[in-house]
Design goal:
Keywords: Coiled coil. The chain folds into two domains: 144 residues, no CATH class; 88 residues, no CATH class. The protein contains seven helices and two strands; from the N terminus they run H-H-E-E-H-H-H-H-H. A two-stranded antiparallel ribbon has the order 1-2.
């Protein structure tokens, strides 16, 4: 197939070569030495004329009448009569035409036969080229149709597989939807049961809240009735704490003024503040006494609280009166 197609393409691309070879053969036959050279025959020459309207085209052999080379009077008269068409010279013209026809028949018969053969060969080559091209086109078309058919078959098979997969997927989805519907119904029933339980719980909570409110009202009434007693107890505790704190303060001041405390403070002031003025030493001694009193009160209150003789009620009331809230741990 490749050699025939290449030959066909070369023949289609170079059609001018065949016509050129045909013209060369015609020229060879026309210019061969077998042509007679009689005086009458020399009056006709084969000239190569160019195609009209086609510049640069190759010449073609044409039989034309040319003046005779001899200078005889008879030849000139015959030639002039043939060209002028004088009716007085009609017999001479008839003879000339007969001789010309005979010469043409003898001269161009081989050329005509060879040309006919060449034309037949060219016609056969053209038919072969056309048939080859048609066969190539048909073959390519068949290949294209075959490829397209195979592609369509593959597409159809793939589509069938996809359809089967989609059908299986749809079946699974339908089963899933059925399961979901069953679960939805179960959830609906469970939701209805939960709703009933919530209603029951709400009712129980409402009853419980009513009972708690009743109990709270009773407790508040009891607290209100017991509030005077509580106030009296708090006042008693406050008086007790005040007496304890006062006793601790008096005891601390007394201890700070004893000889055991006064003498060491006096000696420390004499040693440490020997060059200081007297008022300053006195102020320093009193500040030291106040600090000792505070330490003694703190220590004595912790001791009394450990025995349960102090309730710190005074501190709580003092703190709440200042800040407006109870101290931590109360």
């Amino acid at each position: 197939m490749s050699q025939s197609e290449a030959q066909t393409e070369s023949e289609a691309v170079h059609p001018a070569r065949k016509s050129t070879s045909l013209q060369d053969s015609i020229s060879t036959l026309c210019t061969s030495p077998t042509i007679p050279s009689t005086p009458l025959e020399k009056s006709y020459r084969i000239k190569k004329l160019k195609r009209p309207g086609v510049p640069g085209s190759e010449s073609e052999p044409v039989l034309t009448a040319t003046p005779p080379l001899e200078s005889t009077s008879s030849s000139l008269s015959l030639y002039r009569a043939a060209e002028s068409g004088d009716p007085l010279n009609l017999p001479a013209l008839d003879v000339l035409s007969l001789e010309s026809q005979t010469l043409n028949t003898k001269l161009f018969r081989p050329l005509f036969d060879s040309t006919k053969k060449l034309v037949g060969q060219l016609h056969g080559l053209l038919e072969n080229s056309i048939n080859t091209r048609l066969f190539a086109i048909s073959y390519v078309t068949n290949l294209f149709n075959f490829a397209k058919t195979r592609h369509l078959q593959k597409s159809v098979a793939k589509g069938k597989v996809q359809i089967l997969e989609l059908q299986a997927t749809v079946g699974r989805l339908e089963e899933t939807i059925g399961c979901l519907n069953m679960e939805t119904e179960a959830h609906k029933q469970y939701a209805v049961e939960l709703q009933g339980n919530l209603e029951n719980v709400k009712k129980v909570l409402a009853k419980t809240m009513d009972e708690y409110q009743k109990e709270l009202r009773k407790q508040s009434d009891a607290i209100k009735s017991q509030q005077p007693i509580i106030d009296a107890i708090q006042r008693n505790k406050l008086r007790h704490d005040f007496l304890v704190d006062t006793s601790i303060l008096i005891l601390s001041i007394y201890i700070s003024n004893t000889f055991l405390v006064e003498y060491p403070l006096h000696m420390a002031g004499q040693v440490l503040m020997k060059q200081a003025p007297k008022p300053r030493r006195r102020f320093t001694r009193q500040a030291a006494k106040a600090f000792i009193v505070w330490l003694l009160m703190k220590k004595l209150r912790e001791t009394v609280r450990g025995y349960g003789l102090h309730n710190e009620l005074s501190n709580s009331l003092f703190f709440s009166s200042i800040t407006g809230r109870k101290p931590n741990g109360q």
